[in-house]
């Protein structure tokens, strides 16, 4: 069942079940009562990333607080995605966009990876997590990607499960179309690795292409920004071997 975009959607940390009354935090109560100016009895949709989606009724408790009465389930929780997203952090404004789009594309886990050409050397986990939740609320996703701890490329590869294949976006890979390579992959538990502005260093490309659990794919004939390349690659993977 597709998402209902006519009703406001909210993420709640609480367990969800019909008949429960869930108190809202100050920010969410302010948003519903003051920003959206919803009245007593207004209908919204709620999800927590575990129990599916439910209809809920707004019950103000004064001017600054409110509860939600949980009603019937509107959508069941889907099976989790089997695609993880590994990316080199880029400039802050575009980083927000990148995380939001990865969430919309239905990845299971989002992990920042520091490479030789990475411009940012630390990330704001709180802001990334907030972007993930906001994107899930707005696009109708019920699954919320896990935010992995930022890690250096070498450390990630050293501790990687070789049973899980990494699809590596290699700007130096021969050819323009990744479809043939992707269609030959039989694994379904996968990760997509996208580099920073300027791409991977020669050292990193040599290291990645020698690993048996890494499959390089081309990015096509055009020069793409890192965030554009990530969205294009996620689309190609999901259409070929994912949950399109």
Largest sheet: 7 strands, parallel
**Cα distance spanning the termini:** 14 Å
Beta strand %: 15-25%
Provide the number of structural domains.
2
Characterise this structure.
This protein is an alpha/beta fold. The chain is built from seven helices and twelve strands. The longest helix has 16 residues. The strands form two sheets. Strands 6, 7, 8, 9, 10, 11 and 12 form a seven-stranded parallel sheet that branches. The protein has a five-stranded mixed sheet with strand order 1-3-4-5-2. It has two domains: 67 residues, Beta Barrel (Ribosomal Protein L25, Chain P), CATH 2.40.240.20; 159 residues, SPOUT methyltransferase, trefoil knot domain (Alpha/beta knot, 3-Layer(aba) Sandwich). The radius of gyration is 20 Å and the shape is elongated.
Please supply descriptive tags for the structure shown above:
alpha/beta, Ribosomal Protein L25, Chain P, Alpha/beta knot, 7-stranded parallel beta sheet, 7 helices
Short description:
This protein is 30% helix and 24% strand.
Write the layout of secondary structure elements.
Elements (H helix, E strand, L loop, with lengths): L8 E3 L9 E3 L2 H10 L7 E5 L5 E8 L5 E10 L7 E5 L4 H13 L4 E6 L10 H15 L6 E2 L3 E2 H6 L6 E5 L9 H5 L6 E5 L7 H8 L4 E4 L8 H16 L3
Parallel strand pairs: 1-3, 6-7, 6-11, 7-8, 7-9, 10-11, 10-12
Antiparallel strand pairs: 2-5, 3-4, 4-5
